[in-house]
Structures are given as C-alpha cells and as structure tokens.
Amino acid sequence: MTVLSYADSALSLLPPVVAILLAVITRRVLISLGVGIILGCLLLNDFAPLTSASYLANKVGALVWVDGALNHWNLYILGFLVVLGMITALITVSGAARAFADWARIRIRCKRDAKLLTVFLGCVVFIDDYFNSLVVGSVCRPLTDRYYISRAKLAYLLDSTAAPVCVISPVSSWGAYIIALIGGILTAHGVADSGHLSIFLQMVPMNFYAIFALLLLICVAVFGLDVGPMRRHEQLAQKGQLWDESKGTPPGANADLPEADTGKVLGLFLPIGTLVMATIYFMISSGAAKLAENNQAFDLIRAFENTSVSSSLFYGACIGFVVTLVGVLLQKIDKGLIVKGMTQGALSMLPAIYILLFAWTIAGVIGQLETGKYMASLASGNIPFALLPAVMFILAGLTAFATGTSWGTFSIMLPIAADMAMGSHVGMMLPMLASVLAGAVFGDHCSPISDTTILSSTGASCHHIDHVVTQLPYALIVAVISVAGYTVLGFTSSVWAGLATCSVLFVLSVIALKIKVGRN
User: Fold this and answer.
1) Contact, 146 vs 110, CB < 8 A?
2) The predicted structure's pLDDT at residue 380
3) Radius of gyration over alpha carbons of the chain, in Å?
C-alpha cells in the first residue's frame, strides 16, 4: 500500500494537534484520539475512504501481529497491566492495603509525609517509567487516600518522578537506551574520547528540566503549592471526593471490593517486593542472554541496553501474582471473593488499555506522517548558535508532545543536535544533546497521548485528562526555567552559569507560588 509523505509539511501536525485539543476541550480521550487517527489515515491516503479504512485496519492489526509474528512488546505490556490489576485487587481483598494504611498512619503523621514517601519511592524504583508509575501507585494509593490526597496529586507525584528519574539514571531502561543511542552518535562523529557511561553522567547536570521538575515536586509536596486545576482537586479531596466522580470510576480502581480483617502489611510488601526483584532479575537476565547470543562479555549497563523491558515486566508481574495468590489462599479467604477480585482487577485496567491502544495507533499514524521529522526540520534555519540549546529543548518538547513518545523524540532529535554541534561548536555537543533529553521529558509530561502519562494516571487511579491538566502548570513552570537556563548556557558555554540561572528562577518561582497559594 502506497502512502503519502508529509515530512516537509505542517499538515503532519494536524492529527496530533486535533486529537490533543479535542481531548482537552471535550475530556473524551478515546473519541479525540479516534478523530486524530481517522484524520491521519485520510491524510496518508489522499482522503480515499476505502484505502484509508484498509490502512487503518492494517494499523490496528499491527498492534497484535506485525511482520509475520506477534507484536510481543504490546502484548507483554497489556499482559503486565492486566496481571498488575489482579495483584492490586487481591491485595485489597486480603486487607493488606488497609493494614498498610493503618501501619503507615502511625508512622506517617501528616499529608506532607505521605506525599514525600511517594516521591521517595518514586525515586528509588527507577528501573523503568512504566514500572515506577504503576507499582509505586499501587503501594502509595491506600496511604494517600487515607490522608485525603487527590488522585490527581498522586498522579503528578508518580509522573514527575518516573521519567525525570529514569532519564538521569544509567541503570534503568531509559538510561541504557540513551547511553547506547548517544554512544553510537558520538562514535559516528569521532568525538567519543571517554566511556559512554562517563559521557552520560557528564550530561546529568545539564538536564535542567529533569532536575528542577524533581525539585519542584518536592516543594509542592512540602509547601502544598496547589495551583490551577490541582487546587480544585485538592479541595474536593478534603471533602472525601478523591477523584471527579461525575466522570465515573477511573481506571485501576477497586473501591467496591470487600476487605478482610485479617490483612497484614506483609501481604502488600511481599508481593510488591517480589514483583520488583523478579522484574529486575528478568531485565538483567534477558539482557545477558542477548549479550551471550552476540558473543559479548557480560556488563550491567550493556545488559540493560539489550534487555527486553516488556517481557521482563510481564514475567515479573506473573511471579508477583503467584506470591499474592498464595498469600490470599493461606488467609483462607472465600474463593468466590478471590475470583471476583481477580476478575474486577483485570477489568479495572480496561479503560487504560483502551487509551493505550488508541495512543499506540495514533503514534503509528504520526510516525508514518513523519511529524517528528517535520518538527526537527524547523531547527535547520538560520538560528544563532547561542540559542540552539534553548531552541532544541523547545522543539524536542513540541515533538514529544505531538508524538507522545520520549524515546521516538530521542531517536529523531539527538542525531540532528549532534550534527548542528559538529557544524558550529563541537564543545557544545553534550549540552545540545542534554537539551533534547530534557525537552523530550517535558513534552512527554504534557502530552495526553504519552504512554507514561496514561500509565501514571492508571497507577494513581485518576481520570486521564484530569492528570494532564493538573500537571501542565507545573511542567510549564519548569520548562520556562529550563529555557532560560539553556539560553544562558548557550551564550556563556558554561553549564554552571545555566544551572545558577535555573536555581535563581526556581527559588523565585517557588516564592511566587507560595505567595499565590497564601492569598487564595
């Protein structure tokens, strides 16, 4: 089937822009994504209805079957969601979630501490952003509910630790992918004069968005800086309405399941701890197997570069599920209730699965439209080199926002940033690459079609668009700070000058937010 190319056309922006605007305006994510998908299919097929329908059918089929084989990545991720839903429901049925909330309430004495514990766990569980959002959400939701913290606030706590921590951690699926990608780029340009891991670590302080997104998150947790839509959600939570009940039950919720009185804290920590350790084991072992297949010596970072993230998440969840099920059976809980819990847990993930399937479909259509390449082409004009770090941050942000993928943005924008640096000022290579990483995470945070955003709202059991609109003001604040930092970095060629600029603006922003909250 022949499709048209829009790589050099602003028309490639139309489907994601329409889908995102409709999602924000109507709050109906699936319909909005569906409109964007159909529009993209029509554009690619010269508005021929039958050809477009055939193309769409192929795209939908590719979610399950691609290149003559099962689409293992998608199926493993969907399986992980279903199994994690069952684990969460069984933990609820066992009474372990309530036991943990009671146990933590004695030690966690206020809302602030509950939020800080969530941030801490989000920073500790850094091996993968999907894993971070869903697992930490499952652990912390009973506690944040007990302290009447809105699900929108919980989703923000999850999302703003997931990608920012993963993007600066070398021992994570993100870090390994970035190390491999940047290593190849630098080697191709002949500028890799030290180890790729060392280069990655040098870039960490240049990732202004990730650093200050985490710092703002801590300040929001400590000082209660609830602004914009987040303030309304927090006010409703104080009245016992943890999510917008007018929109129905959010994904991942198991609110109407009965809870046993015999639950123990171990019933939560043992399954989740097993899930974490098993997932890490499968990530390392699958990476090691790939290295052995290529006759390469084992190395932890290279094992993460070659790991199978999706299968590791699924197999780790299966091990966690077995441990959870055994624990519930040992409690001698009614088997009918166990079956009901597993069924409801699996069904509770369906809204998230539907959104994810639509998001994957529109991502495939956007990829065919070459929206990312068009965004990248905007940087090829006569832009003063000193402004390029800031410009690349903005373009990477817009690309990730429009395409819903950080990793796809990395693969498109990083080579372009490296080429620009080589052509103008090779000493600015790493800051340019870091600005792309930072911008991609920013765009990922803002995009309604980002899979990380979708799964963060699922982990928090929050309505998806509520999470998007409540997180947006905080993401924009850090983005403005980052643009200023990259502008100073570009003119001074000093990372520390850029960091200092960001630090001053950050402190002023926190003070301004605190004054605003105090007046309301």
Assistant:
1) no
2) 63
3) 23
